[in-house]
Structures are given as C-alpha cells and as structure tokens.
Design goal:
three-stranded antiparallel beta sheet; alpha+beta; 2 domains; 2 helices
Length: 151
C-alpha cells in the first residue's frame, strides 16, 4: 500500500493541478462572460446614442423647416397686403394688386381660395365660344370661374 502512495500523491498532485487549471479556466470563462456583457453594454449604449442623435437631427431639421415656414409666412403677409379681393364680374371675385386701376381683364389675378390658404395661384383666362363666356382657371384644381363680362 505504501508503494501506491507516491502514485496517489502524484495523481492527487496532478488532480490539484487540473483543478487549478479548471478554476483558472472557470475564472477565465467568467471573465470572458463579463467582457461579453461589458461589450454588449457598450454596443447598447452606442445604439442609444445613435438613436438620440437621429432624433436630435430630425428635430433640428424640423426646427429649420418651421423657421423657414415662419419666414415664408412673414414674407407672405407683406406680399398679401399688396393685393385686395375684388369683384371682377357680378358675383365673381379674385385677388388683384392694389395698384391696378386699369381694366380688370388685363390685371394679374390670384385665385381667392388658394390665396386665402397661403398659396399664390395665378388665374389663367380662357374663352368659351358657346354662350360667349369668359373663364378663369386655377392651376391648383379649384373650380373654374365662368362669367359673361368684366366689370
């Protein structure tokens, strides 16, 4: 039995070395798991930062668009004051420049519906041979204005 003692001690010593190796491997695995979790957290944080930057960029773009729209509306208000809604034929209205004192037929006219909705839509004149009527057409799709004569 004593002759097996050195082999047993050698086996135990080897087992102890393997056990230490297993502990080292186990700790290395834990370390690797911790590193993976750490990297995952960093990736999640980067994703959140990128999402926040995208939201920030979208908001900045929207602010810029709204500032441009505000400027356009301020400019529109100034231009709007130089036009007046006028009756160009009995019951037919259009926006005409305030400075227009001549014939309404040759005056530059805007569609009332579009003008009231902050769009400048020039009315284009056309003639209707049947019934000898005059028409004004809005390129934004508003109904045509049809009448017999200008005031």
């Amino acid at each position: 039995m004593i002759e097996h003692l050195p082999q047993a001690l050698s086996s135990l010593s080897l087992a102890l070395k393997i056990g230490k190796s297993l502990v080292d491997i186990r700790d290395s695995t834990k370390l690797q798991e911790a590193v993976i979790k750490f990297n995952s957290s960093i990736i999640d944080a980067q994703s959140e930062i990128m999402a926040s930057q995208n939201v920030q960029s979208a908001l900045s773009q929207r602010v810029s668009e709204l500032e441009q729209e505000c400027m356009r509306l301020k400019n529109w208000e100034a231009e709007r004051n130089s036009y007046t809604r006028r009756e160009i034929s009995p019951g037919v209205f259009a926006y005409v420049e305030n400075t227009c004192m001549g014939e309404l037929e040759s005056a530059h006219k805007y569609c009332c519906n579009c003008f009231d909705n902050y769009h400048k839509s020039t009315l284009q004149q056309f003639n209707i041979e049947i019934g000898r009527k005059i028409g004004l057409s809005c390129h934004r799709g508003c109904p045509d204005l049809v009448f017999r004569h200008y005031l």
